[in-house]
Specification:
This protein has 394 residues and is of the alpha/beta class. It folds into two domains: 54 residues, Multidrug-efflux Transporter Regulator, Chain: A, Domain 2 (Orthogonal Bundle); 274 residues, Rossmann fold. Helices cover 46% and strands 11% of the residues. The chain has 15 helices and ten strands. Strands 6-7-5-8-4-9-10 form a seven-stranded mixed beta sheet, with helices on both faces. α5 packs across α15 and α10 crosses α11. The longest helix is centred in the C-terminal third of the chain and has 25 residues. The structure holds adenosine-5'-triphosphate (ATP) and magnesium ion. The site of magnesium ion (MG) has 5 residues, from α5.
């Protein structure tokens, strides 16, 4: 039972500790209720038409390939409608690609000479939609058939929670910290877990990541400096993935710098409010000097893309649109064309630790769902194009 009596102590030390322990208890009880020990996160089913749209085939072709026995029948048929699991969609891609005259037509995975794309999403302004952007990009790209790895650098581990891992409840879960620590690191392969979302793996975050800050200040070594640790950990699993999405904590420190040094592209999400623009200006000023520190330490930062992304965009709100227009005038194509719209569909999904891609269209008002999904699709498509451009395909 969580105590609800007033906190008697007047000592700030005790008050902080009591508030913290009550909150932790409440979080634990709430989370345990939401995630009963045997209830792991599961992905919804995909109707046949959505599967065709995702893979880029016609419904007739799907039926023909099924009747010919080239691909298996959907595992669920209700009232004559066919539904596929996420895993089945993933497998359909492989099977269709194997019988296609143009290999790679249904499987966008990188080919020889194409480098692993590592995209860091960062801004020290809390709540600028870093984690929301990461999980939507991750799900979008995995649904397009890319092999995606999420790297959660945040001690709060919200991205890990969205991937179905409660690192604060389960201390047996290894985190990115274990792969980059200065004390007997383990391999990144041991840290990474597959998620319930086909094509998506996660290197979880967790409270221990804060230790990396203290360790780096004390133990940074010439042989394996702080900025190379995450880069090397990610590159040790390079062959397993096409795209890595790195979620950063709302702070600038050794761990975020590790992300900068590991990244091939950077996306800075910001909400269109004067306060956020001002704090992003301050963030980027500090980022610049932190990047200098990394370069002085011997690394060369080269990015394919360094872009700003407007998040929680409200197209009907005049003051925020003035800010978006102002940003576009100042930075032109450095501001991504697509924006992620502010939507109750996104915030409601987030309450369930989900992305819009996990919701059924029938769960929400259709117009709300369609608007939110179209906006996330557009952001995903623009990032997908960045990836394909870096590979020289477009
Ligand atoms: N497009 C959106 N529409 C509505 N709500 C959103 C949208 N994007 C993010 N949110 C909500 O805003 C809050 C902050 O988002 P998020 O956790 O992604 O930010 P963050 O930058 O990762 O935060 P932190 O700095 O704490 O890591 C969350 O409650 C999320 O559900
Ligand atoms: Mg976050």
């Amino acid at each position: 039972m969580i105590p609800t009596t007033p906190i008697a102590s007047t000592s700030p030390v005790d008050i902080s500790s009591e508030i913290s322990s009550r909150l932790n208890l409440a979080i634990k009880e709430h989370l345990l209720a939401a995630y009963a020990p045997d209830s792991t996160k599961q992905l919804r089913l995909f109707p046949a038409q959505e599967v065709c749209d995702l893979i880029g085939i016609s419904h007739q072709y799907l039926r023909k390939a099924t009747v010919e026995g080239a691909i298996p029948e959907a595992s669920e048929i209700k009232h004559g409608r066919r539904y596929y699991t996420g895993q089945e969609v993933w497998e359909l891609r492989q099977l269709l690609d194997a019988r296609s005259k143009t290999p790679g037509r249904y499987l966008p995975s990188r080919r020889e000479g194409e480098s692993l794309q590592r995209i860091q999403v960062m801004n020290f302004k809390g709540g600028s939609s870093k984690s929301t952007t990461c999980i939507h990009l991750a799900h979008y790209l995995a649904l397009q058939g890319f092999r995606v790895l999420c790297v959660d650098l945040d001690p709060q581990a919200s991205l890990s929670a969205m991937c179905g891992l409660q690192t604060e409840l389960d201390e047996s879960i290894d985190t990115v910290y274990d792969a980059i620590t200065y004390h007997d690191p383990i391999s990144m392969k041991e840290v990474i877990r597959e998620t319930y979302f086909p094509g998506l793996s996660i290197a979880p975050g967790g409270l221990m990541l804060s230790e990396f800050e203290a360790e780096s200040a004390k133990l940074n070594s010439k042989q394996h400096p702080f900025f190379a640790r995450l880069h090397d950990a990610i590159m040790s699993v390079e062959t397993d993935y096409d795209v890595v999405l790195i979620d950063s904590p709302p702070s600038l420190g050794f761990i975020t710098m590790g992300g900068m040094a590991a990244a091939t592209s950077v996306i800075v999400p910001l909400t269109p409010s004067m306060l956020d623009v001002a704090s992003t200006a301050q963030f980027l000023k500090m980022t610049s000097s932190y990047m200098e520190v990394i370069e002085r330490s011997g690394a060369k930062l080269v990015y394919d893309n360094y872009r700003l992304l407007v998040t929680r965009d409200e197209p009907v709100d005049t003051p925020s649109q003035t800010i978006v227009a102002f940003m576009r005038a100042l930075f032109q194509e450095r501001v991504m064309t697509a924006t992620s719209l502010k939507s109750t569909a996104i915030s409601d999904a987030a309450m369930l630790q989900q992305s819009i891609y996990e919701l059924n269209r029938s769960d929400l008002t259709r117009a709300t769902y369609d608007r939110a999904k179209a906006s996330m699709d557009a952001v995903g498509k623009e990032v997908e194009n960045m990836v394909l451009e870096a590979w020289g395909r477009i």
